[in-house]
Write a structure and sequence with these properties.
Length: 310
């Protein structure tokens, strides 16, 4: 296939910071085949995603059909700026930060379930992403890698195949280079830096607690550092060495400073209107490429407002 590029067109391998790549069709073909030949650095699923998101335009008109016919001389523009979805395609409480053939990294807002239980059938991050990938390929699937509590916001990662899910989960401790949370807790934390270590267990009421006996339960290690503090609240940077269920919430209760809004684990009030926990940074080695990737979601402004002078 003879593909002629405009002299000033961005290279398909160029930085995502470039707005678009413009290509000229050299011979009769179809849109998907043309893009696969013209964007050699991208896999088939990645190119299908570009089409599904409306990022490919033929002579200025967005086209999503794989088999759209192309004729010599037509211009195909691939936009590297994500197209805002509307209507039924719009993701609710969820923003895609990164997507490739193996993983999807998202920002989840507080209030959205990661995945439903047998009793809960409402809209979830998992269900929305499953629908999202099926619009590109009906056989596509999404696999959960780790979870955030309903009222915890921030960075989450999903796998696009069971193989990649297993690669990540089996090597989670070594693959994850940084997993940092912002925690708004009650009271002034006097120790500026500290580590909480305990063995966690769960009772029949599904409440997790630290066992008084060493080696009784799952080992959990949490490191924290005070970022801001006043008489009523402290904002902590919390780094997880282990990733147990409700680990931060239990450990904050253990040091006498429960997470704001967390009545399950001892919080007295709910002045924030949500849980004061946010998955701030997730850094990891890509499960297939090995490249180090880092994603950061800003600390919610509602957390920071608690420290403004009144």
């Amino acid at each position: 296939m003879n593909v002629k590029k405009r002299p000033k067109a961005h290279s398909p391998a160029s930085s995502p910071k470039n707005d678009a790549t413009e290509l000229v069709v050299g011979e009769p073909t179809e849109l998907l085949a043309f893009l696969l030949a013209s964007l050699p650095g991208r896999g088939r699923n990645s190119v299908k995603s570009i089409l599904a998101r409306g990022q490919a335009a033929v002579d200025g008109r967005p086209i999503t059909k794989y088999d759209h016919p192309l004729q010599p001389g037509q211009r195909v523009t691939v936009s590297w700026t994500k197209v805002d979805r509307s209507g039924g395609d719009k993701l609710v409480g969820l923003t895609i930060l990164h997507e490739d053939d193996d993983i999807v990294v998202v920002h989840k807002e507080a209030g959205l379930l990661s995945i439903a239980t047998a009793q809960e059938k409402e809209l979830t991050a998992y269900r929305q992403l499953s629908d999202y990938v099926k619009r590109v390929s009906p056989s596509a699937r999404i696999f959960i890698v780790h979870r955030l509590d309903r009222d915890t916001s921030g960075v989450m990662m999903f796998a696009k195949s069971e193989r990649v899910q297993q690669l990540l989960q089996n090597d989670w401790k070594d693959a994850v280079l940084e997993r940092t949370y912002a925690a708004l807790v009650e009271g002034a934390v006097r120790t500026k830096e500290g580590t909480v270590k305990s063995w966690l267990k769960e009772n029949k009421a599904m409440v997790v607690y630290s066992s008084p006996k060493p080696d009784d339960g799952q080992l959990a290690i949490t490191h924290y550092k005070v970022l801001q503090s006043n008489d009523r609240y402290s904002l902590l940077e919390v780094r997880l060495e282990t990733g147990r269920k409700n680990q931060i919430r239990v450990h904050m209760k253990d040091i006498g400073h429960p997470v704001v809004g967390d009545k399950k684990y001892g919080a007295r009030g709910s002045s924030l209107g949500r849980l004061g926990l946010h998955a701030h940074v997730l850094s990891f080695r890509h499960p297939t490429g090995g490249k180090t990737m880092r994603f950061e979601s800003p600390i919610p402004s509602a957390f920071l407002r608690m420290f403004k002078e009144k």
